[in-house]
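Data availability (excerpt). The following record was deposited with the supplementary files.
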Amino acid sequence: MKLSVSGRATAAAVVAAATLLTTGSIAGAAPAPESVAIAAAPDIPLAGVKAHLTQLQSIATANGGNRAHGRSGYKASLDYVKAKLDAAGFTTTVQQFTASGRVGYNLIADWPGGDANQVVMAGSHLDSVSSGAGINDNGTGSAAVLEAALAVARTGYQPTKHLRFAWWGAEELGLVGSRYYVNNLSAANRARISGYLNFDMIGSPNPGYFVYDDDPAIEKTFKDYFTGLGVPTEIETEGDGRSDHAPFKSAGVPVGGLFTGASRAKTAAQAAKWGGTAGQAFDRCYHSSCDTTANVNDTALNRNADALAHAVWTLSA
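Predicted structure:
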């Protein structure tokens, strides 16, 4: 993904490394402390994210048109993501649970290194509804989280904090997979998660730019990034408490995330600042058979995937 020169410069300024201070000139004075440089997040290639979406569409097409919980399309989706992560050097864990009489799976991927007592997580639900391929909901979030994780490996990023990525099962049945994960953490391990970032629908075809307002520091990280691009944001309300951040928030974990809108209609004021069509749903194919690779706005997916990476790098440094 490519930002404009001015947009990249402004966004990079948010996480610019502090300059090293010179030592004092007075005899015996202690040297001034060095500031730790914060690595800027890499550009997340839109082509990479879209290649994952193409694979998820192909998986759905080959498995009855969906990637729903307990169906062959979901397991094939998980196997695809896991293979990419394993090849990139992540330590992956498949967590099994049962919901509605069917076996479901979460996929957890840990990047080696970092402080295990300070874990930054980024996640998305990988399942679709049974009525369609679920490419915006939530192939977009799943593909962007995957490409950000692969960027960690490509760059050899070694953050101060420990990085963990997750793909949840059975979200569409009521946040089943993420709730199972959180409920099965010990109190100590829950306390070690310093932040959970959620990405559920980030490429809606008539997009808005919505930021979760749950944790002030995480919210500011996302809003600062979009300010650097000159893109106004609004507080996310449509999906509040309806996605996989909710179990983490209930357990006391700081949470945040991004969203581009679902079945609500875009207002005239929103269309004026974001473009698109007023009076039409942010995603008219929400939970429908037309939620295919044709149901994605590339600009929104581009911006949100880069914002995702920016937050991962900034909050884990």
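Summary of structural features: The beta strands are 91-99, 102-111, 115-125, 161-168, 193-199, 210-211, 234-235, 255-259.
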